[in-house]
Amino acid sequence: MSKNIGIKELAKIANVSIGTIDRVLHNRQGVSEKTRQRVLALIEQHDYKPNLLAKHLASRKQFSIAVLMPASEDNPVWQPYVQGIEKAARDMEKFSVTVDHLPFDQYDPQSFENAAEGASAYDALLMVPLFEKAAMRLKDNFARQGKSCLCFDTNLPEGDEHLFIGQHAFQAGRLCASLLNYTVPADRSLLLVNLGRKAGYHLNFWGRENGFNSFFKGKDAPQRKLIAYEGPIEQANHLEQGIAEILQKSPNIGGIYVPNSRVYWVAHILEQLQRTDLILLGFDLIPENKKYLKRGTIDFLINQHPENQAYRGVEWLMQRLVFGEKAEPGSTPIDVVMRENLEE
Amino acid sequence: MSKNIGIKELAKIANVSIGTIDRVLHNRQGVSEKTRQRVLALIEQHDYKPNLLAKHLASRKQFSIAVLMPASEDNPVWQPYVQGIEKAARDMEKFSVTVDHLPFDQYDPQSFENAAEGASAYDALLMVPLFEKAAMRLKDNFARQGKSCLCFDTNLPEGDEHLFIGQHAFQAGRLCASLLNYTVPADRSLLLVNLGRKAGYHLNFWGRENGFNSFFKGKDAPQRKLIAYEGPIEQANHLEQGIAEILQKSPNIGGIYVPNSRVYWVAHILEQLQRTDLILLGFDLIPENKKYLKRGTIDFLINQHPENQAYRGVEWLMQRLVFGEKAEPGSTPIDVVMRENLEE
DNA sequence: AGGCTATCTGTGGACGTACACGAAACACAA
DNA sequence: TTGTGTTTCGTGTACGTCCACAGATAGCCT
């Protein structure tokens, strides 16, 4: 009904011109204290909200968003993120916002630095902070310039007021523990497989690992034997041998937890060893994992909704830039996928 | 860099006035076929995208969206939907879109009809089509007037090209079956509890029930004894008695599936009977259910992300109205919630 | 009072699009 | 040729805001 009041009406009521109102709104100098107060009161009183569309139109600004994220060629995990970014880029175009993907090598800190360099020219930043120190620096840089910066997929440790879109890794780990605890008989033990802890083993993996372990600690936590196996990242044949050995040595193992997307390696090995009876749980709906999920070798996968995460990240930044909003980014559900709810 | 081309530049290039460009863009009559083709070619060639901010500013249109949904007082299930709608209403305001909730009584078809009556004046419709025939009529009405109509939460059966945001009930049912199949030892049977099938037992419930049953049918489906219990909806004491009896008669039952939000009734009864050892699975994160989930009486809840569903529904309609887009509404993940990933 | 700052305020033209109105161009019959 | 009607096109104003510039007002000095 009562359509929002505009700068013009406001001027009429205050008996000043729109120029004055404008100056007050942007608290620029050149307006007497008396009028300023009067105008401010009226703004308050009439609950004036600037028309963001008109505002943005008049101030002919073009915004740009940088997305700092590994190249999708490195790892299929990043593929859907890229898709989300691309879709967002298309959708944001209408708000005069351009989105660029600045790829880096997820195993090479220097490449991150280089990409970060390029990001400084943008108005806002969306990044996967795989390299902690460099990411922190970059974030602080943006903060200092009053520009928004949002992390996704992986969160930085000191997350006080930190802006993040993604799964809570620790919680996800706990959920996995609970799921295995439900599905594996109580007298059997669980195996945690860490693939390639040294290289590119990023914060998310730690969180998932810690969350998993935390489930079995504490006073009335379920008693369950846990075995940890630290596998190599590169040599697949070493891994096969290692897993074969550990399964032989501990025939009591009933379930395996892989806190990252490389669970398909383990799936492959289990099929080789004809041990598909074990409950296998891992992360990410990449094609290889889906394959084994369909066959039943992998039993559960935790989905992060990557396309959605990336899209929402860009959207959130756009809303800040264009509309000046500052809502909570909101978290990503920890989505359990089984053969039965695998889409497509 | 190359800032988007505008209607003005386009006019200059085409050697016509902006008026003509405008007519071509809105394919209104009054422009010769020759010029139209020329302009269209240029539009294509320069990849012209109208500036939506300006567009919306100039066309002083006010859109309205009606949301046909049960009143949240009827049932806590609807509470988060209302919140989603309200948040959407706030966010859509800047696009001059108003959103009204037209509540109806989920058990009273007549109240649905009444609400539907009121909806006809709106530009678009978002509804929970609990009453099939009336909903179909309403939907067709909107379609006939070229207005958008979107269902959420519950889908209409003939969903050929039908627009829907929400969970796939059948798939959700299958997932639940699988989950119980994993967590309940193979030699124990499962109980399916239908609460109040007659009154307000809507399509979603059927889908979840059928999906569940389908899991155990087919050639290499797991063999498992299923027991179905049809409980009364109103008399809680009857229910308690009924469940107690059936548990006594079939002591082999290892898990219970309740295909709707009333799982907390069963949880309450299980606590009374001191049978919290049973795996209990149901739907919706309403406060009562959360309570029992935290305590461990309920083991799994399927979340529908209702706020999100409602919000996305409104947003989708807004995008159609304001921006004229026609993307797929996208589906809702089937989110498994356990004690460990219950938020807050 | 006239002149001169310094401070305060109003005006007008953008931004890119929508739309009403009216002008021009054309066709065709008288 | 003129008149009439129809099709095709251009112009002007508006949307709500930003911003540069010009205009007004007041204070003070000579």
Summarize the structure.
The structure is a homodimer of 344-residue chains. Chain A is an alpha/beta fold and 344 residues long. Chain A has helices at residues 7-14, 18-25, 33-45, 52-58, 79-92, 109-119, 132-144, 169-183, 203-215, 236-249, 263-272, 287-295, 306-323; strands spanning 63-70, 97-104, 124-127, 148-152, 164-165, 189-195, 226-231, 253-257, 279-283, 300-303, 335-337.
How does this structure look, described?
- 2 copies of one chain form a homodimer.
- Chain A is an alpha/beta fold and 344 residues long.
- Chain A has 3 domains: 7-50, lambda repressor-like DNA-binding domains (434 Repressor (Amino-terminal Domain)); 63-167 and 306-333, 3-Layer(aba) Sandwich (Rossmann fold), CATH 3.40.50; 169-303, 3-Layer(aba) Sandwich (Rossmann fold).
- In chain A, 44% of the residues lie in helices and 17% in strands.
- Chain A is built from 13 helices and 11 strands.
- The first copy, chain A, has helices at residues 7-14, 18-25, 33-45, 52-58, 79-92, 109-119, 132-144, 169-183, 203-215, 236-249, 263-272, 287-295, 306-323; strands at 63-70, 97-104, 124-127, 148-152, 164-165, 189-195, 226-231, 253-257, 279-283, 300-303, 335-337.
- In chain A, helix 8 packs across helix 9 (203-215).
- Chain A binds chain B through residues 3, 51-54, 56-57, 62, 93-96, 171-172, 174-175, 177-179, 182-183, 215, 279, 299, 303, 305, 323, 331, 333-336, 338-341, 343, and chain B through 3-4, 49-54, 56-57, 62, 94-95, 171-172, 174-175, 177-179, 182-183, 215, 279, 299, 303, 305, 323, 331, 333-336, 338-341, 343.
- The structure holds a DNA duplex (30 and 30 nucleotides).
